[in-house]
Amino acid sequence: MKHIFFVEDDLSLINGLTFALKKQGYEVETARTCLEARKKWGEKNYDLVILDVTLPDGSGYDICRKIREVSKVPLMFLTAADEETDIIMGLDMGGDDYITKPFKLAVFLSRVNALLRRSENSSQKDAQLYSNGIAVNLPKSEVRKNGSRIDVTASEYKLLCLFMENPDIVLSPEQILGRLWDCDENYIDNSTLTVYIRRLRIKIEDDPAKPEKIVTVRGMGYMWSSRKRG
Q1: Low-confidence ranges of the chain (pLDDT < 50)
Q2: Domains annotated on the chain, with CATH
Q3: Could you please report the per-residue DSSP string of 60-89?
């Protein structure tokens, strides 16, 4: 049985979603404040964390930061804060998904199931990815370029892993968004993806203006080139 930690201050939403999740076969632990969440976090090993952003005594972002210091557990933000800057901040600090209220129950449950599936699959992968001078240590979530460690955000890390797990295959923006964040058209759009790719290129390419790792395939999408050109 999968254990879900749900932090939310709206009692009616807690009751409704807890009922729905339990019907799916999940065990749910809830907290309504940051203080309560911090106390309960260490009591069990959770398979998924769902966080509201606005809580009576603080922010779900603060809880996320604390969790990411010690755990790579899948984490979903569930909030009314729907500005693009809020979404990007939540994903960059370590969120794996971001759902804005109001939402459809079926969509919420589908994305919960997808996060848990991805988590199971990733735990079965090899411990390291290596290609074109870039090495990713999966257990440590560590990225190195030609042996030197580079710092990437959580979203940049997930994007890099997706590319390196699919070398020399053209991925459309829609495929990337769907596989990385289970997105819909109102969520992360193509222009935001372009920003992520540009930022990642600055960190991993020798010349970001002439990328040789994340290559743009005009009219189709992007491809991870497994070999250095030239």
Answers
A1: 183-186
A2: 3-123 (3.40.50.2300), 128-224 (1.10.10.10)
A3: HHHHHHHHHHH----EEEEES---HHHHHH
